Amino acid sequence: MKRTPLSRGIALAIGAGLVGLVAGGASVLVAAPSDAAGRAAAVAVAPHPVNGDVLHVGPNGTFGGIVDCPAGEVVTGGGGYASDPYALRLSSSYQSGPGAWVAYGQNVGSRTVDVYAQAICTRP
Length: 124
Prior knowledge:
Elements (H helix, E strand, L loop, with lengths): L1 E6 L2 E6 L2 E6 L2 E6 L16 E4 L3 E3 L4 E7 L5 E9 L5 E8 L4 E8 L5 E10 L2
């Protein structure tokens, strides 16, 4: 089993159909399924954020953004992000089909902010 250091005292161990996390002497191993030839089979992907394109929105400007999940994944939630969260008024945020998230809103602040739609994606 090969160990790869992640940070001080924590390592990721991979080998022989197992994935493990080693931290401070304690280990957690997860068996990864394999096919008849011993190759790792596809495993579930934990929900993860996917960000849309960054939009630069001026004071009192409106925005609309959409973000797609990677191929083979579905959206389980989402929202919007702003570099100044107090300047963002999110007016609408919803799922668009099985693999996309849409966010609309307005910059109610006095400076330009960066915003983007964000989807939470996973494998079905």
